[in-house]
Design goal:
heterodimer, A: alpha+beta, two-stranded antiparallel sheet, 12 helices, 14% strand, B: 108 residues, Glucose Oxidase, domain 1, eight-stranded mixed β-sheet, 8 strands
Chain lengths: 371, 108
């Protein structure tokens, strides 16, 4: 990538994308437990094991495309990379810079296999589909126009918020993209009006039943929901490196047409959408009650299990146990519960040092020096 | 109009209504359609109440927080990261939420 006459490495591009995302995010609410209170128990072990898994995968002849197919979404991989990096830097004995760079570049290569746009979403695009695939999607979907059925469009967006909340309830605030991905914006023509330029956003909720990490929720009536929504170009939606969608103007009034499939079955009535929403709200309530009665240790263990769930496909492909090793639980026993310091005012330089694989800076361990 | 609280403009638009401060999970059931939901932060268990609200105001959170994300999807105004909304705003106060400017005004 050429920027102002010099060649930006992928690490630099990655850090730029992180800076942009963090600058828009401001403070975050760590629900139900802050990552800094959990990462020390597992992040070094998980990062080392990930290196071992990727080397084993190479020895077995697996391609990066094979490995990419085991990961739920590019966004969750992008979200995991900072976590993995801090884990690598915290290892005892230390992991060399060369090894860190090898892993990071390897993960960037996997992202390349998953996307057709810039892997760090610079430019606000998170594109999974090429133009041909988008065209097929447009032609094969049954569209409901906002002009004819505004209530339906409104209900679809309401359902989306319910599904997003379910993702948070199942995967906590850090890893909801284990279960869903927003991708786009794709430049399209409005179906039925080929001269009308528009934008397609795909909301894929592909894992509503993570039975490996939670007991089944009988109230969840489906496993997957796909929402296709076409908007006026004035909405100017963007998706950042962490999968956050931002836009100007009002989402619903900018919507021109929608198409929604639940377990591959088309939904075309407001009644069916409302019924699904009501059932999912009940599921969230049930799941929230489960979380609310968990003690802090239980929450930390669950968080770690969800974190390991991200690479379960890779470890399963290698015939390994994907769940956290017992040494993590021994650490929990020995160290007790730790609490991270109060969040400081946002300082990008501190984050940059933390997430740059080329240096040895570890937050909380290395002395931080102001730039 | 008098400014009551300021925060981060998380979801554009304006909405006027009666404030409903959520202090405990049980308070979610008190939210009536068209009210302004005020909380320290929202979590998934509050989504039913959020879907009734006309706008959201929170003490904590950024553009990637739960209230910000769901407000944008619902197309309702949202101001997050105010630091003091749950202290300043009281149940029953008539307020105007400007989600484009990140300001909540006294509309009584």
């Amino acid at each position: 990538m050429e920027v102002k006459g010099w060649c930006m490495t992928r690490v630099e591009a990655y850090l730029k994308a992180l800076e942009l995302a963090f600058s828009k995010m401001d403070s975050t609410s760590y629900w139900p437990v802050p990552v800094a209170d959990v990462a020390p128990y597992f992040s070094d072990l998980e990062a080392l094991d990930l290196i071992d898994c990727l080397k084993a995968a190479e020895e077995q002849g697996l391609t990066k495309k094979d490995i990419a197919s085991t990961i739920a979404s590019p966004t969750v991989l992008r979200q995991a990379i900072p976590d993995i990096l801090v884990g690598l830097k915290a290892c005892t004995p230390p992991v060399s810079k060369e090894t860190r760079m090898w892993l990071v570049e390897y993960l960037f290569d996997i992202l390349e296999e998953m996307m057709v746009s810039d892997i760090f979403c610079q430019g606000g695009e998170n594109l999974r589909l090429d133009q041909g695939q988008v065209q097929i999607l447009l032609e094969q979907s049954i569209w409901i126009g906002a002009a004819e059925q505004y209530d339906f469009v409104k209900e679809v967006h309401r359902l989306s918020t319910t599904l997003l909340s379910l993702m948070w309830a199942l995967y906590f605030y850090t890893w909801p993209n284990v279960g869903f991905e927003f991708h786009g914006p794709y430049r399209v023509a409005l179906p039925g009006a080929p001269k009308r330029k528009a934008i397609l956003i795909v909301r894929d909720f592909f894992n509503l039943h993570p039975w490996e990490i939670w007991p089944p929720l009988d109230t969840i009536p489906c496993s997957q929901v796909r929402i296709l929504a076409i908007y006026d170009t004035a909405l100017s939606p963007t998706i950042d490196i962490f999968g956050h969608m931002l836009h100007s103007g009002d989402l619903i009034s900018s919507c021109l047409a929608v198409s929604i499939y639940v377990d591959s079955e088309i939904i075309q009535t407001v009644y069916k959408l409302s019924d699904l929403n009501t059932r999912l709200l009940a599921a969230i309530s049930e799941q929230s009650q489960r979380i609310n009665i968990m003690d802090r240790r239980g929450l930390i263990e669950k968080y770690i299990l969800i974190r390991y769930y991200i690479f379960r496909g890779l470890r399963t492909l290698l015939h390994r146990d994907w769940k956290p090793p017992t040494v993590i639980y021994q650490r929990l026993d020995e160290w007790g519960l730790i609490s991270s310091p109060e969040a400081q005012e946002f300082n990008w330089h501190h984050f940059e040092q933390t997430f740059d694989p080329r240096n040895d800076f570890v937050p909380g361990i290395t002395r931080y020096e102001e730039k | 109009m008098r400014v009551l609280v300021k925060g981060l403009a998380a979801s554009a638009g304006q909405a006027q209504g009666v404030a409903r401060v959520i202090a405990t999970p049980g308070d979610c059931e008190k939210v009536q359609p068209g009210e302004i939901l005020v909380a320290v932060i929202t979590d998934p268990s509050m989504i039913g109440a959020i879907q009734k609200a006309k706008a959201i105001v929170t003490d904590l959170g950024g553009l990637g927080s739960h209230p910000a994300i769901v407000a944008r999807e619902l197309g309702i105004p949202c101001v997050v990261g105010t630091g003091n909304a749950t202290s300043v705003l009281k149940d029953g106060m008539e307020v105007l939420v400007d989600g484009s400017k990140g300001v909540v005004y006294d509309a009584s």
